[in-house]
Amino acid sequence: MPSSSHRPRKRFGQHFLHDPGVVRKIVEAIAPAADDVIVEIGPGQGVLTFPLAERVKRLEAIEIDRDLAAALPGDRIKVHVADALEFDFGVFPKGVRIVGNLPYNISTPLLFHVARYADRVRDMHFMLQLEVVERMVAKPSTPEYGRLSVMLQTRFRMEKVLRVGPGAFKPPPKVDSAVVRMIPLNSPPDCDAKVLEKVVRDAFSARRKTLRNALSLEEQDYVELGINPKLRPENLSPQDYVRIAQRTIGKPD
Fold it and tell me: Do 165 and 176 contact (CB within 8 A), yes or no?
């Protein structure tokens, strides 16, 4: 087990989980089977790593902190000293399960990065800031619903499975946390991913405007899509954005 004397490094956004009850609930939520290939992002001091490794034949850990990484390897644990934001998750076999207590300071770009590998992943379980999880699972026409909600919900079915207070970590963060389960949908959105990303980004960069003023669509486009141009971006479902992206292909910016 890595030394508990390791000082958390602010630049890596380190908040080490230490509550055994929370660890047990996370492992139960993941429910690892012996043949599962599990990849853990940011294993830190190994509080989740070692209980998971006891249940599987193979666990791959991605740790950017060299001091922590040096203390992690074991019979069933392989450590990659790397930045998860730049890591190629395609090197793992199809059906991999990804878990992690993600650094809160880079959680959104990290979520977008791992989402690119959805077709190779069985599921993902992440500890994140509660506010981020609520945005991920938010429904249309709610304050939390936005770009993150749409982009992830077009590719994953998501569920908040556990709320965790600051006291479960050392040092304690200033916010509550939550564990989210992400299961890839059977097929990706039937549109160009970059076009969809641009449509959603344009819409929510002007979320107080109506769709008519936020997106470069003609009135006839709205008629044929069956979408009211007077609605605001947060009123549309993820599938509505997929349909707009399909319609947008070939149109000038």
Answer: yes
The Cα–Cα gap between 117 and 144 comes to 25
Rounded Cα distance, 58 and 166, in Å? 31
| pTM recorded for the entire structure | 0.89
CA distance 121 to 115: 9
Report how far Cα 129 is from the mean position of its chain's Cα atoms.
Answer: 11
DSSP string, 143-208: TT-SHHHHHHHTTEEEEEEEEE-GGGEESPPSS-EEEEEEEE-SS--SS-HHHHHHHHHHHHTTTT
Q: Are 81 and 64 in contact (CB under 8 A)?
A: yes
Give which of 236, 134, 126, 129 is closest to 183, Cα–Cα: 126
Q: Are 212 and 229 in contact (CB under 8 A)?
A: yes
Which one, of 63, 83, 74, lies nearest residue 6 by Cα?
Answer: 63
User: pLDDT tens across 176-225, in order?
Assistant: 999 999 999 998 899 999 999 999 999 999 888 999 999 989 999 999 99
Per-residue model confidence as pLDDT tens digits over 102-125: 988 899 999 999 999 999 999 999
Name the one residue in this structure whose structure tokens are 């990303």. 197
Q: Is residue 65 within 8 Å of 12, Cβ to Cβ?
A: yes
Element (H, E) at 40: strand 37-41
Nearest to 55 by CA among 38, 39, 72: 38
Q: Both ends of the chain: CA-CA distance in Å?
A: 54
